[in-house]
Fold these 4 entries.
Entry 1:
Amino acid sequence: MKRDGVSRRRQELLDLSARLFAERGYGATTVRDIADEAGILSGSLYHHFPSKEAMVDEILSTFLDDLFSSYREIMARDLGARQKLEAVVVESFECIDKHHHAVAIFQNEAKHLAQSERFSYLNDRGQEFRALWRQILEEGVRSGAFRPHLDLDLVFRFIRDTVWVAVRWYRPGGPLSAQNVAAQYLDILLDGISSRRGRSRVANGMSPAVKEKQRA
Amino acid sequence: MKRDGVSRRRQELLDLSARLFAERGYGATTVRDIADEAGILSGSLYHHFPSKEAMVDEILSTFLDDLFSSYREIMARDLGARQKLEAVVVESFECIDKHHHAVAIFQNEAKHLAQSERFSYLNDRGQEFRALWRQILEEGVRSGAFRPHLDLDLVFRFIRDTVWVAVRWYRPGGPLSAQNVAAQYLDILLDGISSRRGRSRVANGMSPAVKEKQRA
DNA sequence: GTCTATAAAGGGATAGAC
DNA sequence: GTCTATCCCTTTATAGAC
């Protein structure tokens, strides 16, 4: 009983601060803002958490543990590269739906937080994320599911950023489900927006003005 | 002579603060940080600028004026939808190259800054940006350059976010030119990463597990 | 679990000398 | 164009009463 009561209040405060960190930014949210929102005074927060930093730490690591646990399950399944890609993208959008505030905080603050020792695990997760995606992409190119001659590092960054940046406009409970957005996103990523009759590789089809400017 | 001297120093301070705002975040950068970097004391900054807010305001509006001036030129040219799309994407990556710090600040801070009256022009620019992209996409669907039945609002957000978020990893003067990144990006956006033999619409080709979960 | 009260540090900005 | 000196406010965090 007592433990439930304690952790319930704790979790309430954590959810509430996650919302404020996501909406206003971690740095711009003061412990007084959090306390006001909870209807208590700022000093009382320190009964539950040792510091503001500890709060955002718990928010982020909870989200990341959940995400990577799901990713590892997918990678352990016996799927082709294309199916793995589809599954990971769907899982990512579902995670944006489920951990919306945490994902928003991660997107906005990870780069700065990761510079401090305490949040070095953010860099580790980034490495793990890259390895996972490279594996899927390389396997897909080998098997012929994806086009050859792709710059896989660029494709990786492209996919990573395009998926997660959706947290900026996606709204849980809104008109589009995570699965629907994932499907449309995969549609573009895999097949492009060009019509079949208009379809052509950019290297062949891009306007002369663009081609002239290329150097690399 | 005197005017040049004044504006040169002013511009130095503006460039330097843009770098710090981009690297550390606007809120996390203090006027003392800026002054330290410039080798002067914080009070001296107020000889050049009325406030810290005025500095970031000037950085952002300079960048946006330049960007939209280029966009308007492109839209005034007599191009097909696909060529317009290519030109606008290339121009955007060139702008990331040219105004790297300003774009980074815009990406990280615009959402929060736009809530204050002073930065309401950020919302106006966002509207203008959306109108421009919708025009290109609608024209392309009508002309048959782009696939029919696309959710154009989603495609717009997809393109907007994927282009600008590249500021997080793109480095001016690095191994990839803006034009090269633009070309690869357009390649994926227009034709996808799927190989020709593996190619199929997601609605038909997605794994059953994904289709089952869709609700909308 | 929350409050009162306050410490200690750091924030943006200003006035006037040089 | 910069410095000296400082104001006033807000910040995170703490100690101990209730």
Note: The longest helix of chain B spans residues 52-76.
Entry 2:
Amino acid sequence: MPDKNIPDIVIGRLPIYLRALQRMLAENRHVTSSQELGERLGISAAQIRKDLSQFGEFGKQGTGYSIDYLAEQIRQILNVDQVWDIAVVGAGDIGSAVARYQGFANRGMQVTMIFDNAPSKIGSKVGSFTVKDIANLESDIKRGGVKVAMIATPSEKAQEVADKLLSAGVKAILNYAPINLTVTDDVRVQYIDPVIHLQRMTYYL
Amino acid sequence: MPDKNIPDIVIGRLPIYLRALQRMLAENRHVTSSQELGERLGISAAQIRKDLSQFGEFGKQGTGYSIDYLAEQIRQILNVDQVWDIAVVGAGDIGSAVARYQGFANRGMQVTMIFDNAPSKIGSKVGSFTVKDIANLESDIKRGGVKVAMIATPSEKAQEVADKLLSAGVKAILNYAPINLTVTDDVRVQYIDPVIHLQRMTYYL
DNA sequence: TAGATTGTTAATCGATTAACAATC
DNA sequence: TAGATTGTTAATCGATTAACAATC
């Protein structure tokens, strides 16, 4: 069954499973079980088995899952058995940190370009990248065939940037600006706002 | 009813509502409705009314919600009508970006200290902060009465840092290291890993 | 008053868990 | 074989939505 409309909440857990599996591999582990994985992640074993069963049968009764094999299967499901090029828009503190971030390696992502609109930044170096002029955003992204972008501009510019990204063909946006974006429904948006996470915790303090 | 065990998923939406309300205020708006808010956020009006009704009656039939008043109520619920001091651990790209981040202002959070273990960084400046020695983490955090921290260290150090934070009395941790933390259950943890968000989107591409 | 929108109830929908036969 | 763990079904649990009386 290639695609029987999997709940998005299940898709959301797959990257978590994958990250844990890659961590286990780094610890030189080769086999795991839904129970062990669940304990590490604070998720029930039944839920992990149910989630995985949406996509196929990846385990063996009695022994569990081959970590290598399961990781590879999840990578294929998530389309991260390839490497996605990412454009970063905004070369301030956050954009620069993200462009230099080492954590994309081996996880199917790589930053390939970074844009800003400030003359003082255009042409300067951020890590190994030369900051590009945001005026060329659409043509550069189109030429590069880039489908994934991260917005790290001030809130006021974020929607405008998003509109340009869409017309350049971007289909997935990770938005660091603390504002909701309006996009066409063939485009995915995810949000990272540390304050949202922090406020969610202070309720309990 | 001060506390009838509100679902965590409801708590998780309150910061989103608050952010949208503050945005509306910045646009000089003074009244809104569950319908308008829902359209902006992609959430049903019924859900917003249901969520809010868990905490009290904040609206007026026929006219909707006073944005100012509702924002203030949500701030009180989330305990962000005060300002929480935050300790940042790790003065690399991410820790430095977070320490300098302007987005905490008026949202109940402020960074007050940043730590690292590298002699080359200790004593140097990150924004207006002088990087402190991680060796003094426990005593500095205890003395400051800090309850909220962000971890921006390499994955290998994150659990060790978390342990120290707990013994220093920290009760809420926002973890940027791509690894699951184990903590006692009086402590809240939230995670930010851009790759998790990106992989969640590439499934659909 | 007429129109609009809340707060809340009941119905629906969807997600999680428990349990177990199958089988490695 | 005996023990362990999967994949899956059915039962439970919880969250969302629809609908509407109350009322501004």
Note: Residues 8-26 of chain A form the longest helix (19 residues).
Entry 3:
Amino acid sequence: MAPVTSTTEADAAPVKPLRADAQRNYDKLVAAAREVFAERGAEGSLDEIAKRAGVGPGTLYRHFPTRDDLIDALMRDWTERVAADSVAAVEADVSAREMLQRWFADLVRHMTLHRGAAAKLSAAMDDPSSPIYRKCQMLGEANDRVITHLIETHALRDGVESRQVQRLVSGVATIVDQAELDAEQAQPMLNIVIDGILRDSATS
Amino acid sequence: MAPVTSTTEADAAPVKPLRADAQRNYDKLVAAAREVFAERGAEGSLDEIAKRAGVGPGTLYRHFPTRDDLIDALMRDWTERVAADSVAAVEADVSAREMLQRWFADLVRHMTLHRGAAAKLSAAMDDPSSPIYRKCQMLGEANDRVITHLIETHALRDGVESRQVQRLVSGVATIVDQAELDAEQAQPMLNIVIDGILRDSATS
DNA sequence: ACCTGAACACCGTTCAAGT
DNA sequence: ACCTGAACACCGTTCAAGT
């Protein structure tokens, strides 16, 4: 939620500058991909994306050799939003339980960017060769931020590892996505996870 | 594990008898599907399956109008194994924690029958129109058996619902599948779930 | 009643030709 | 340096013709 420092939405990516027409095509492809993935999910037709962007299929391949490269591009400002939410969670003046409830809800929401996104992110978590591996790392760092803070506060059980928590919540996000549940239906599952990592003293 | 009462492996399905050649093709298709799904996962080529079975593509469609009908057929004796494991878990003379550890490991193993199976089962859980919905219900009943037993033993926290537990463990199975983790790597996640549903008194 | 295989549609991917 | 679009390969799905 909190409107943290974020570089201005548009361009400014750390890639070498493109020719004007190439940049225009790049942007149109990303916009078209955002549309198609929103409608059809992560397996939406690449042909359709090229068509909507008004370019030939070869142009799509030149800019994005694989489908995941395209997904990665369309998540450019996503990372910042995730990080901002994790910072907001840590800085909030609430109980450990409430902090986890908010953060996990954020995590699930971010991972269900579009249909199939949660599954892709889950699979990429352990695959450094994936184009979206970096995005997963960022997600991991954001989760680390919250979990580490709670460990330092002695709110969590001994032995709780951030990585395991991330996997587990990713599993919840994937289920929410695949079974087309809405956000509220994730809460009971997340509460079990929270009870599973919170120290007994903090229990209801 | 326990070799519970199971009808003899082969035919004897409750469907109307097929003509001899049709039955032979049916069996060859199921066998070929088992192979291909084992190698390529749940999205393996149907063409390839027909080819390996030595039949035309039309024959595959006659017997199995959708991919999920084929998956359902190949899980015919799967249900019994799942049920048997849940009975064995309940009858085992072990602690609640150990019972859950065994049962959840069984559940994950059964759901990762082949690549993509866990995701399919998770999606079908809330979709009565799915050909494999019945399989999910059976899975649910097996899980109910264990969870209900533990509730009656007062081993679980108040408010724990079998359905939520099933979804959560399905999430773990899906992650295990997608990130290609092996069985042992699921244990830390499952332990969190167990801590999340076990009453405090039973904690390590 | 069941099977075959040609035919069609759709999609991903490549690449020669163009600017 | 980048784009186009034809061409190819592969796959799912249908259906007329056969037995």
Note: Confidence is low (pLDDT under 50) at residues 1-13 of chain B.
Entry 4:
Amino acid sequence: MVDLESLNPEQLEAVLDTTHNLLLLACAGSGKTRTITTKIAYYIEKGILKPWEILAVTFTNKAAYEMRERIDSMLPGFDLSSLEVRTFHSFGAWLLRRHHAEAMLDDNFCIYDDDDSLSLLTTLFPTTDKKLLRGFSKSISKAKDLGVDPDDAKLSEIDSEEMFRMVYKRYESAIRCTGNCDFADLILLPVGLLEEHPDIADRYRRRFKLILVDEYQDSNRMQFRLLKLIAGESSQICVVGDDDQSIYAFRGAELKNILTFAKSFDNVREIKIEKNYRSTGEILRLAGGLISHNKERHVKDIVSATDAHGPLPKLLECADGEYEASTISSIIRRDRLFRSTAIIYRTNAQSLPFEMQLKKDRVPYRLVGALRFYDREEVKDALALLFLLVNRRDSVNFRRIINKPPRGIGPKAQEEIAGYGDDLVTGLELFSSGHGKAAEGAKAFLDNYKEMLESVERGDNLGDVLLRGITHSGLMAMYEKEPDKNVVKARKENLSTLISSLSQCQPGYESLVGYLENITLDNSTLGGTGEEDTESQVVLITMHNTKGLEFDNVFVAGLEDEIIPGGSDVRPSDLEEERRILYVAITRARKMLTLSYARRRMRWGHTDYMHKSRFIADFPSGSYESNVSRQERPPMDFDRLVGARMSYGKRISSWNGTTMNDLRKEENGTIERIELAVGDIVSSEIYGKGRVVALDGDMATIEFLSGVKRLNRNYSEFKMVEKASSIRKKTTFQVGDKVRSAVYGDGEIVSREVKNAAADIVVIRVRFKNSEVQLVEKFAKIEHI
DNA sequence: GCTCTCGCCCCAAGC
DNA sequence: GGGCGAGAGC
Ligand SMILES: Nc1ncnc2c1ncn2[C@@H]1O[C@H](COP(=O)(O)OP(=O)(O)OP(=O)(O)O)[C@@H](O)[C@H]1O
């Protein structure tokens, strides 16, 4: 039975309403995803709709998998294979695969990623500045996301470069020649297809009776048009989202879509939820305070539905990036946060110090995204052979692989081959009938190509086909020549991962095409350690990637200007988006939230002096606890600062007008120096509890669980846990004594036994109201009453 | 056409 | 720090 009991009234309404188009505009953690998942399961269980009549669209692949999994577990025994849970792009690919001829694509078209698009541009314009081409590549995808074609008058608003229109035009005709498509085409081409073929559109309109879109605030103009095209008279549309979580403007996301939903569709019912089931009140207060600084938003509250409370969020100031990583790692180890913990940052480049630190400290972790498996050179090379196998017009992959390893077929020869026509394999055959080194190389390449093709058609295991392919082509030998043995090893491991994943596919052509589509759409399907056990590994992830996820413990690192908010051209609208990105990261936390920033950070091989993020000022006062961890900071940072000012010139802009006096004020700041004596038990925010072993002027040597540290008392803050004097003057108890404990309440001593007189280990048993506990007398936190 | 070295410049985030 | 492209020299 699908569980409707635990839903709140609004969620229940959204699940049960079968007659309206629904807009669920609700805050973070309000159970939007849970609602639509339940709705799908409910419709299927009650027989309201068949699985194939439902289409659910998510924003990321991860979200799609999770949603399918949740539905599966709600409906054991149902066959859900015909239920479509996809990202917009994967849905587009699915449509195009079914109607490739009408869309003018190859039977076995593959999808070009951003790199491939850039390669295509490079072959079209070999003499044009690479940086310029990169910009064009971005502009082209932006134009396509907006549905602006090369003849559109508004094109110059996207890219004012004079030659852009011509570049865009030639790119479009070149990609059509390959029979393949790029990411933007996955939305653009289906829109064209359905507009030009009403009969096809009708089929899908009749088929999908319920269409749900998660994270609708991040849909773009073309995705909206696609949604309109597949929404039929009798279909019910249900979109859910949160305008405060719109973080994909850079990809053309338009908040307008969700804010004007009621105008775009008929018979709309809007449901709002302002209750959060995920986080503690403390976390919500901080998050709510932050987002309330955005002007362009629908003001809504975010209040705790469960009234859960927990520790106040913490803000850590760290001397540098490495120190930030080691601090976070030591907190993770100190509090044993190995389960359901994430370290979240703005850019992938920030993951490195965490990877190194966690590896050193033997904390199991999983890196999400980053250098994606299929983006690695050797993997792309090997795949290029396969791409060419399924589509002979794939010029991008042809050029990638034809002269790798070198076989004398340079740019000139490549032009000649391309001159024979779009079918590059036929071109290569014609070329190979000539003479010379290049023709010989072409023959060798063709032999391998044909051998691979035949073995796929024969039904050989696909992994074996690839292994033979990369061996005969000389790719493998080429990688082995690399002088750095570690690189060789890593490459071989990656190739072997690739081969073994391929060998698990069904043999044959069709299955190969499917495999290739899958890996382009979802880069995360392979790679990493292979262990998908996120629950017991610390997850390293970007803010964008965490959308829709949740963790008990969240560290948000790198809260510095020029990281978040990033970039230097801070337009107000960008700033609001940056604030939303941080808001998304913060609202992933269920119980514990720790924010951190570094005062200096290594970037591009030199040290930058950072200023803490301006967003920190947006947090309500008292909503977080700033420990200001100054331990490692040399007392006089100013000399270095002045040096930096002179040598780095404009880079000092990152100080954003902070004056020396501000710094000094901060420097004299809030350290409260407490009296210490040898033997005292103190606690430090960074290192946890420790025992003072020596005092020497300003320096205190303290033994922490993680090791002995020598700290300057002017720059380190401690809390007294237990004075040594009070430890010595410890109380003893007698059987029958009435005692009080902060944890257990009042109780009575029932036994007392000296276990080891020399070490002063005396075990007492105390009976409290609800329990009986055994304690070591000298450590017991109880007192006489 | 291949390979090695020098010097440049680091703008993201995602499908 | 490092990846990458330009250009020299083979
Ligand atoms: N009615 C409810 N009772 C108890 N827990 C709930 C309820 N609704 C949702 N939750 C829990 O709240 C958490 C957040 O739910 P969910 O991920 O569906 O929210 P969301 O609105 O999609 O969040 P976000 O927009 O931040 O990604 C989940 O752990 C979910 O199980």
Note: Residues 437-458 of chain A form the longest helix (22 residues).
